[in-house]
Amino acid sequence: IRDRDVTGVQTCALPISVSWMQDGINLGVGLPNGNILIWDINKKEKLREIEAHNNRVSCLAFNYNILSSGSKDRYIKNFDLRIKSPEISKIKKHKQEICSLRYSIEGDLLASGGNDNIAYIWDTRNLKNNIFNFLFDENSVNPYEIRPYSVNNLHQAAVKAMNWCPWKRHVLATGGGSKDKSIKIYSCDCNKLIKNINTESQVCALVWNEKEKEIISSHGYNKNQIIVWNYEKAKKICELKGHMDRVLYMVKSPDEKYICTGSGDETLRFWKINDEIIGKNKFKEEDEMINNVLVH
User: Fold this and answer.
1) What are phi and psi of 94, to 5 degrees?
2) Which residue did the predictor score with more confidence, 134 or 114?
């Protein structure tokens, strides 16, 4: 796809990050120069371009009309797309590049993961108009000093993989990089580690399977596999193999029957994760992968 979005609209630069607004029509695109493009995909029309950062936009997350962006410049910036001057707040807490952002299911918390090995959780009520308030608050010292709601500093490597549990409020799963290789399941409300899973591989992405109460992780060095875990027992159910490079991206279908994975081996692979009738052996090795698409 390279320099175009899926509908064939020119983006003028190689996209670094993308995120859909919940309406499924507006798409945010983060660029290497720090700008963010907002596209109406139905009309194939660029709605606006925001000069957001002074370095690449590594990650984006929508909370309806609020768009949050994370950058190599170490800032999180928050934009209200309904107003002419959209920037409403910014945070500088991470010490290195921000590599993941994820809003909670309720939209009241925002999790940010960085190359500094830390995941911060922010109360979204504090992300609105903090720069404006600073101008009139004589006691303010730093306009970017918003206290996090919670801090997960348990990892020993970058935190790129993050996802919120769909059936337990404010429970966040985070995955660590190649020097960590663990999944931490963390309660943000009580700042408590609930479960710690040693995966023995770099954790690249995480999705939850609500129907079966499972968590699915994708990995890099050294097996490039996908692992399905039982949540309650933190026990490995099976491994899905097929990729020849890091499995960097993973998404679940709305009906929770399939996942799609994207890898550095330039393929997309589709996997069945739920059957109508679950036998003793949930997966058969020869039947794990249902489709393989070469994207190079």
Assistant:
1) -70, 145
2) 114
Q: 132 in helix, strand or coil?
A: helix
Residues 6+ apart with CB under 8 A from 85: none
Strands of 57-63's sheet in order across: 57-63, 66-71, 76-80, 87-91
SS3 85: coil
What are the tens digits of pLDDT across the range 225-245?
A: 999 999 999 999 999 999 999
Listed residue (247, 252, 226, 249) closest to 237, CA to CA: 226
64: left (phi over 0), alpha (psi -120 to 50) or beta: left
| Sheet with 192-198, edge to edge strand ranges | 159-164, 171-176, 182-187, 192-198
Q: Which two tokens stand for residue 288?
A: 């794990």
Tell me the H-state helices in the chain: 130-136
- Residue 17 phi/psi, 5-degree rounding, is -145, 155
Residues 66 and 22: their CA atoms lie apart, in Å, by 11
Going by pLDDT thresholds of 50, 70 and 90, the confidence category of residue 8 is low
Let me know if 198 is exposed, middle or buried by CB neighbors in 10 A (0-12, 13-18, 19+): exposed
**Which pLDDT does position 255 carry in this prediction?**
86
Residues 97, 81 contacting (CB under 8 angstroms) = no
Nearest residue to 222 (alpha-carbon basis) of 239, 205, 245: 245
